[in-house]
């Protein structure tokens, strides 16, 4: 019993020394372990005896031993897992970072996508523009017709101005004379048709009878019953579709009113374009950005020169076609030769299609009023004149002022007729020709401007104002 207090006292002393050692080690790892060559704190006296006695401190660090200079914890000292994270082992698999999504898309797909959304925007803009034009189709066609008439009459105004006639008087004289001539031509056509309508009806009936006899005696083996059945079917179709014909007649009255309204709009637009053309052109230039104004100012005279050359050349070519085909119809004794010649002149303003339609009309009239031989001769005359026109007259008269590929002519006429009917077919080719001239000039202007910038020169204020001799400037401008 005498040893129990002594044993309890030794256990308490050992726990006290163990707590002191823990405090010393914690202080060493937090503050004094970084000091190179710093000596460790000596172990308190009696620690070795107590360790030998109780066997619990055999792994204690020897007193007076110096700490390593690397700043690491001494060997045998336990380090908390929150104070040191070991590096990953070398055999751990490496995870590659995910690539950029843009870099993962192939180059061709990216280019196609960039082109596609731009094309979609252009298509949407074009669709909106077409919808706007269709909503005001009458106004647009009237203004375009006024531009074409102005391009035809403006050289006369310029000629009168050069001879000292005031602008107002020159404009009035040209405007009145031009529309009087066009009105007389239209009146002459209507008068000739109404005067020869009875004779034409009799000739058509006679031609149908002759065609019936020819079919009966032809090698096609057509019987009289088949011809009568065709006539009966036609009469029945006309009888059953009386309501449609009546509605078409009512729509025809509406069309006539729209045509009269368009003619009035075209007349007023032509008058103001002839008189105030330069002011209108200057106002239009102010609508463009300042950076693009110089190029547009140079492209305007080129566009007007192209339009004027097209209208002049088309009028001359149409007049030659009408005169020569009309002479051929007169000598072949075809009824209404003069009205047919006027129709050929008017249809010549529709490229390619107009010549075919007017020539076919002349051939049909010759067939139903005369005979097959006369129709064949009319066809020969029409083809001969059109070949001379296509290979001699147009290249010589139009020259290189209007350079439009035949494929572009066909496609533009078809698109114009689908969008706006006959009026669209008339204005399609001059619109394409003007667009071609403007785009070509702007491309050349951009190239020359880039060369001037590279050479350190300053671009002129309004480039491209010098128009070749004989060409016309913007509407109403005093150019020859």
From the structure above, extract its key features.
single chain; 480 residues; mainly alpha; 14 helices
Question: What does it look like?
Answer:
This protein has 480 residues and is mostly helical. Among the domains are: 137-279, no CATH class; 288-474, no CATH class. 74% of the residues lie in helices and 0% in strands. The protein has 14 helices and no strands. The chain has helices at 4-32, 47-54, 101-104, 107-135, 137-162, 167-195, 197-216, 224-240, 242-286, 290-331, 337-347, 353-369, 372-397, 406-455. Helix 10 runs antiparallel to helix 14 and helix 12 runs antiparallel to helix 13. It starts with a helix and ends in a 25-residue tail after the last helix.
Strand content: under 5%
Label the overall shape.
elongated
Distance between the termini: 143 Å
Oligomer: single chain
Write the H/E string, N to C.
Answer: HHHHHHHHHHHHHH
Gyration radius over CA: 50 Å
User: Which structural category fits the helices and strands?
Assistant: mainly alpha
